[in-house]
Amino acid sequence: MNPRGETYLWIAQRASAAVLGLCVLVHLATIIYAVQGGLTGAEILARTRGNAGWLAFYAIFVAAVAVHAPIGLRSVLAEWLGWRGRGRDAALVAFALILAGLGMRAVLGVYA
Amino acid sequence: MSATLNVSVWRGGADGAYRDYEVPRHESQTVLDVVTHIQRALDPTLAYRYACRVGMCGSCAMTVNGAPRWTCRTHVDKVYKNRKLEIAPLRNLPVIRDLVADMREFFDKWARARGQFRGARTKADDFARVAPGSEARKLVDAAIECIGCGVCYSACDVVAAIPEYLGPAALNRAWTLAKDERDTLGVDRLRAVAGDAGCHACHTHMSCTERCPKGLSPTAGISGLKRAVAGAALRGEL
Fold it and tell me: How far is A77 from chain B (nearest CA, A)?
């Protein structure tokens, strides 16, 4: 990949990290709040089902993960396994799609 | 203070081994003094490199007890822990023989990072006047005193993992030029230092900053390059 492409990847990883920082905080705070009063699974689903706000929040969360993790893994593969080039990048695109797919499946599972 | 030092010195090339020497101990003795004593009094075949002996030339860097150091300004008292002094050539560079590392790749990377100054003025022009208090000049001042010793390069784990990585010294040099208002290379240099073999490979471990004998922070310069390169990319100039 050329320097411009690699720079865009770096920007994407930094930007997604900023989004993730916020998302993780909200996510953890929500978990801590939700378990305090002993909410059941059914009660949680009652709050998330049909709630467009939670759908949007977790869709953004999943998108940020799908962008962030493969770019980090890209450096790990190069530095630890010496795997570079198009084969690696194609594998990482597949990895990003799997992350996005599994993540959105879970998000839709508590929305729909 | 004991009368003698137990010193292990790397002998041979990449497949060499440590050899032990007993060296008289003196007040205010430097590691370079120890190596010099070995060559002059114990074994004249020992190969090592030095020039100025006062921390200016950057040629005497070696690995001392596992860490890269300038040996002429490293006192034995500071490093002689557990009665052990182990001296080896710089890491991350090919060994020529004994304590002499091949610095070619290190300096070739300065050239690859476009470490040459390129100005627009000729000798017919007046001097450029750079305000000492300007933001850019202050950033250059903080990074300009590099003596090219290779200690940062030897300390860097990213260089160890990615052999083509330009390394802290070359990137630090590029940073001082990127902030030099007389320099005209601009985006061409940013393009040379961008990407997986350039500033974006830095993990900010700060080993270079920890080890730099001149107290510089190549890490700060590399971070500056990352921002400058990202800015150029977002403006569509890269």
Answer: 11
- Dihedral, A10, A16, A19, A24 alpha carbons, nearest 10: -120
* Cα distances (angstroms) measured from residue B102 to each of A96, B75, B106, B154: 42, 25, 8, 12
For the domain made up of B104-234, give the CATH fold.
Answer: Fumarate Reductase Iron-sulfur Protein; Chain B, domain 2 (1.10.1060)
CB contact under 8 A, A7 and B233: yes
Q: Across the interface, do A10 and B200 touch by the CB < 8 Å criterion? A: yes
Query: Which residues in chain B have their CB less than 8 angstroms from residue A10's CB?
Result: 200, 226, 230
B163 closest CA partner among B153, B171, B173, B177: B153
Q: Name the residue in chain B with its Cα closest to that of A81.
A: B161
Q: How far apart, in whole angstroms, are the C-alpha atoms of residue B140 and residue B6?
A: 42
| Mean pLDDT, rounded, for B211-237 | 97
Give how many domains chain A has, as a whole number: 1
B93 Cβ contact list (under 8 Å, min separation 6) = B101, B102, B103, B105, B106, B150, B153, B154
Task: Measure in Å the smallest separation between the Cα of B159 and chain A Cα atoms.
Answer: 10
Domain that holds residue A28: 3-111
Using a CB-CB cut-off of 8 Å, the residues of chain A touching B162 are 78-79
Closest residue in chain B to residue A84, using alpha carbons only: B196
pLDDT tens for B140-171 read 999 999 999 999 999 999 999 999 999 999 99
What is the CATH number for A66?
1.20.1300.10
* Residue among B214, B234, B201 nearest B109 (CA): B201
Homologous superfamily assigned to B4-101? Beta-grasp domain (3.10.20.30)
Provide the ipTM: 0.86
Contact B161 A1 (CB under 8 A): no
| Rounded average pLDDT over B117-133 | 94
Q: What is the average pLDDT value for chain B, to the nearest integer?
A: 96
* Predicted confidence (pLDDT) per residue in A49-104, tens digit: 999 999 999 999 999 999 999 999 999 999 999 999 999 999 999 999 999 999 99
B158 close to A (CB below 8 A): yes
Percent pLDDT > 70 in chain B is 100
Q: What are the residue ranges spanned by the domains of chain B?
A: 4-101, 104-234
